């Protein structure tokens, strides 16, 4: 169980690099950091930087789940919900406006596949940790039939 917990912690720590680095890049370089058009609307750039800050914050919050990950189920599920909602919004955009860049398609995979899988894994580790923490006498007796 302890090995699985450590593998999960590493996977979450590494995966959280994606929103932290992507968010920090967006905050620092704005919308022109992606399109390099030099024509960015100031309001669109401001909104892009704001959303990039939120993305960075999501990654940082995932990092706060790493220590004691088996006890962070509620926060992990909430963060997963936020990421999946963002991914569903991106998927709607794909339908409405067309296929985005390969980087954005990769982000979609992280949002709708990888993050939910990590959430399921976290739930499994939390459940196993809880089961191991229960004293034997706390387990229900088998019922004779």
Q: Which shape, going by the Cα principal axes?
A: elongated
Helix fraction bin:
over 70%
- How much strand content do the residues show? under 5%
- Our Rg estimate from Cα atoms comes to 20 Å
* DSSP summary, beta strand count: 0
User: What are the secondary-structure elements, in order, as H or E?
Assistant: HHHHHH
Query: What structural class should be given to the helix and strand makeup?
Result: mainly alpha
- What oligomeric state do the depicted chains represent? single chain
Average per-residue pLDDT, rounded, comes to 92
Largest sheet descriptor:
none
Can you give a write-up of this model?
Helices cover 77% and strands 0% of the residues. The protein is mostly helical and 145 residues long.
In summary, what is this structure?
This protein is an all-alpha fold. The protein has six helices and no strands. It has a domain at 66-133.
């Amino acid at each position: 169980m302890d090995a699985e917990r450590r593998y999960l912690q590493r996977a979450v720590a590494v995966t959280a690099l994606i929103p932290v680095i992507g968010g920090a890049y967006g905050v620092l370089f704005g919308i022109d950091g992606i399109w390099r058009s030099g024509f960015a609307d100031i309001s669109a750039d401001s909104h892009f930087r704001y959303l990039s800050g939120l993305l960075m914050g999501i990654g940082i919050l995932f990092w706060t789940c790493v220590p004691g990950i088996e006890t962070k189920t509620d926060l992990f599920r909430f963060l997963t919900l936020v990421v999946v909602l963002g991914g569903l919004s991106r998927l709607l955009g794909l339908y409405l406006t067309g296929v985005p860049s390969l980087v954005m398609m990769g982000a979609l995979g992280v949002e709708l596949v990888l993050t939910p899988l990590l959430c399921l894994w976290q739930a499994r580790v939390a459940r196993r940790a809880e089961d191991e923490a229960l004293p034997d006498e706390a387990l229900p007796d088998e019922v004779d039939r």
